[in-house]
Amino acid sequence: GRLNADNARFLLLAVLIVLYMLCGAAVFSAIELPTEREAKERWEERLENFTRRHNLSRAELRHFLREYEEANVAGIRVDDIRPRWDFTGAFYFVGTVVSTIGFGMTTPATVGGKIFLIFYGLIGCAGTILFFNLFLERLITVIAYVMKSCHERQLRRKGVLPHNGRRGSGTSEVDSLAGWKPSVYYVMLILCVASLIISCCASAMYTPIEGWSYFDSLYFCFVAFSTIGFGDLVSSQNIKYESQGLYRFGNFVFILMGVCCIYSLFNVISIVIKQSINWILKKLACRCCHRCQRRLFHSRRNVVMPGNVRSQRNISIETDVVNESDTDGRRLSGEMISMKDFLASNKVSLAIMQKQLSETANGYPRQMSSNSKQNGFSGGVGALAIMNNRLAETSVDR
C-alpha cells in the first residue's frame, strides 16, 4: 500500500544519490588529483631546498609548520586581517551558523564556546529553516497574486469584468488565490533567474573589493548561497575596506537574499526529483504488473469461471481486467473470481437451487417431464436430483 510505495521511493532515491555521489567522486578525482600531485611535488621540492639552504632538519621544519597550522585554525594569519572575535566578526560567525553555511574560517576554541554553539545552533538553524520555508510560501503567494491580477486586467480590457469590480478582500482574497497557484516548473524558473541575478550582482561587488576574479566570485556565491560553505574563499575578512560599513551591509543583504533563493530552489528541485522518481516507479510497476498479469492470464486461461460472468465480456490482454461485480464494483484484474462475486453474479441460479434442495429434502421433488424420463435424467435426492433436473432441462432430443 502506501507504506510500500514510500519505501520503494526511499530506496530508489538512496540508490540514485549513491550513484550520483560515485559519479561526482570519479569526475572530481579525475580533474583535481593531477593538480594535487603536482602541488605536492612542488612543495616537497621547496621544502628540501629550504632545509638545505638554512641547514635545518626536516623534522624540525615539519614541527614548526605543524604549530603554524594550529595557529591558523585559531585565527592567526600571516597577512593582516581583522580580529575574528570582535563584535562584527562574531556577528558574521553567528550568521554563518544560523544560515547553516559554516565557512570554518572561525570556530570556537573554548569548551564553553563549543557547548554554547550546540544549543545556539539548534534553535537558530531551526528558526532560519522555518524562515526560508515561509519565504517560499510568500513567494508562491505573490506569484499567484500577480497571475490573478494580470488575468483580471485582461478581462477588464475585453469588457468581461467591470473596471471597479472587487471580489473581496482579506481571507476571501487569499482563498481565491488557491486556483492560481503556479506550476512547480514556473516557480523553479523564477527562482533560477532570481538566483542568477543576485549572484551576478554580488560577484560584481566582490570582484573589485575582495580582489577575486569574476569566476571566483561566482563560485563563492554558489558555495555561500547553497550553504555548502567550504571556506576557501570568505568575504569581509580584511581589516579595512573602502566604504567598509556599506560593503558589510551589502554583503549581508546579498548573502541573505541568495540563501533564501537557493534554499527555495533546492526545495522546488526536490519536488521535481520526487515527481521523476514517482514516474520511474510507475513505469517499473506497470511493466512488472503487465508481465505478472500476462503470466496469470496464460496460467489460468483454462480455469472454469461462472457462465454469466465469462459470457458478458472477454478478458483483454492489454488491460487484464475482468467484469466488475454489480454489488461492490470490484475489479478482478485477471485473478480467479472470489466467492462474494460468485454469489452476487449467480444469485438467481442459487435461489432456484436452494428451492429445489428444500423441496427434495422435504419429500416434494420436482415432477419430471416425459422428455427427461425418456432421456434418462430422473431420480436422485438432494444435489443429485438438482443435477439430473438441470441436465434434463438442457438436453436435446435426437
Automatic annotation (TrEMBL):
Record field: catalytic activity: K(+)(in) = K(+)(out)
Keyword Cell cycle recorded: no
Gene Ontology molecular function terms on file: metal ion binding; outward rectifier potassium channel activity; potassium ion leak channel activity
Domain Potassium channel: 80-139, 189-274
Subcellular locations according to the entry: Cell membrane
A GO term from the CC aspect: plasma membrane
GO biological process: stabilization of membrane potential
Keyword Iron-sulfur recorded: no
Residue ranges of coiled coil: 33-60
Keywords assigned: Cell membrane, Coiled coil, Ion channel, Ion transport, Membrane, Metal-binding, Potassium, Potassium channel, Potassium transport, Transmembrane, Transmembrane helix, Transport, Voltage-gated channel
Lipid bilayer topology: Multi-pass membrane protein
Residue spans crossing the bilayer: 12-33, 90-111, 117-147, 184-206, 212-234, 246-266
Entry similarity comment: Belongs to the two pore domain potassium channel (TC 1.A.1.8) family.
PANTHER family linked to this entry: POTASSIUM CHANNEL SUBFAMILY K MEMBER 13 (PTHR11003:SF57), POTASSIUM CHANNEL, SUBFAMILY K (PTHR11003)
Protein name as annotated: KCNKD protein
Organism: Calyptomena viridis (Lesser green broadbill)
